[in-house]
Amino acid sequence: MKNSLVLMICVFVLLISCKKKPGVVVDSPQQGEITMEVDESFASVSEALTSRYMALYPNTKINLKIKKEDFAFLDLLEGKVRVIVMSRELSENEKKAYKKETDLDWLPAKFAADAVVFVVPKDSPRETITMEEIRQELNNDKKNIIFDGTNSSNLNFVAQKLDTTPDKLKFSIINGNKNIVEQLNKFPGKVGAIGLNTISRPYDPESEKLKNSVKVLKVVQDNKAYEPRVENLVNMSYPFTRILYFLTNEKYFGLGNGFIRFSCTQLGQIVVSKEGLQPYHIFKREVQMR
């Protein structure tokens, strides 16, 4: 009788310990709900990937929130979100903070080649802008280059490319990539800096309308002019090509890591390609038939 009582107590304790504890997130790649934050500059490709993933796994829900790149990174460290998309490389201090707060190594999951592009009104006679002109304009009190805000991926990346920091640059602000395109005509002589993904989605009416309302400037480096075409993203010859990557604070193979793995596999990379961006893991191959 005594042994039976002890056995019953052990079973009861085991059952209690196996119950879901309050606050513990239980999910898997096939089910669950998480939040993901991305900068507005690459919201289109992020939306396409999450929509495709949730279609494949109906029991999953990925809440996509738009937030400036720097603030998204802070939210990841604080555990407010599970996954973010970044375009710039973290500083050494940021990598240390990531390691400290998440207890994970900085292992960026690269999935697409995107770019920062410079645009002017459609009727502008201008066709190119040089690297030196960009540098000069960003040190000019006239603030002739318009970005979509401070702490944004576009500003962060351009500053990093020019080996400086955003606080040392002089620029104008119109909040949102789309708003820059739509309002650029109001500011003669200004140049807009937007994310390629804003205008890259082929056959999408809104993307096509935005693209057709502005002129994308070629960027001149070492006396060569480069357009932000896919082929120039492949070899990164376009000077402001950037690699988009995921970061997560998920320590197990849950919904966050499941989504990241999907985005880096062939199916996810096809979605990236349909967004008009260069997939990081799939490069175009030409086969000659004889």
Automatic annotation (TrEMBL):
Iron is among the record's keywords: no
Keywords: Signal
PANTHER family noted in UniProt: PERIPLASMIC PHOSPHATE BINDING COMPONENT OF PHOSPHATE ABC TRANSPORTER (PTHR30570), PHOSPHATE-BINDING PROTEIN PSTS (PTHR30570:SF1)
Domain of life from the UniProt record: Bacteria
The protein's name: Phosphate ABC transporter substrate-binding protein
The PBP domain, residue ranges: 28-263
Presence of the UniProt keyword Lyase in the record: no
